[in-house]
């Protein structure tokens, strides 16, 4: 069992940097995935989080000594809530457009910035 852990490839800084660089090139090109693909990916992430909730909680205890309740409240629940929020935002963005008050628009932008949903991602956005 110990030898299988030693042979496992590590996702190192160089590989991460290359992946992010490739993603940024794709993002900057304007080539994007369809709305349906993005929603399917978000749903898959939610399902994955729910399916592996126990393993996530165990890893947080092992790495950070977080209790089960603390892990669930601070990590698993927040993660699920963020992805649910993104899903709702995408659904609403695909709805027919209509005029809104400037104050409503500014409030929406402020809310999205507060929860870091715009301006920071290159993978799903």
UniProtKB/TrEMBL annotation:
Q: Does the keyword Transmembrane apply?
A: yes
Q: What Gene3D superfamilies does its record include?
A: Aldehyde Dehydrogenase, Chain A, domain 1
The GO molecular function terms of this record are: aldehyde dehydrogenase (NAD+) activity
* Coiled-coil segments on the chain, per record: none
GO BP annotation list: aldehyde metabolic process
Q: What is its EC number?
A: 1.2.1.3
Provide this UniProt record's keywords sorted from A to Z.
Answer: Membrane, Oxidoreductase, Transmembrane, Transmembrane helix
Please name the SUPFAM superfamilies in this protein's record.
ALDH-like
Q: Where are the transmembrane segments?
A: 98-124
Q: Which PANTHER family match?
A: ALDEHYDE DEHYDROGENASE, ALDEHYDE DEHYDROGENASE TYPE III, ISOFORM Q
Recorded protein name is Putative aldehyde dehydrogenase (NAD(+))
């Amino acid at each position: 069992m110990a030898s299988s852990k030693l042979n496992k490839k590590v996702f190192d800084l160089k590989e991460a940097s290359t992946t992010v660089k490739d993603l940024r090139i794709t993002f900057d090109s304007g080539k994007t995935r369809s709305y349906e693909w993005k929603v399917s990916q978000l749903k898959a992430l939610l399902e994955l989080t729910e399916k592996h909730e126990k393993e996530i909680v165990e890893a947080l205890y092992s790495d950070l000594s977080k209790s089960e309740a603390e892990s669930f409240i601070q990590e698993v629940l927040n993660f699920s809530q963020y992805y649910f929020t993104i899903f709702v935002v995408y659904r609403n963005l695909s709805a027919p457009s209509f005029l809104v008050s400037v104050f409503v628009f500014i409030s929406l932008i402020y809310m999205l910035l507060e929860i870091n949903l715009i301006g920071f991602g290159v993978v799903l956005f």
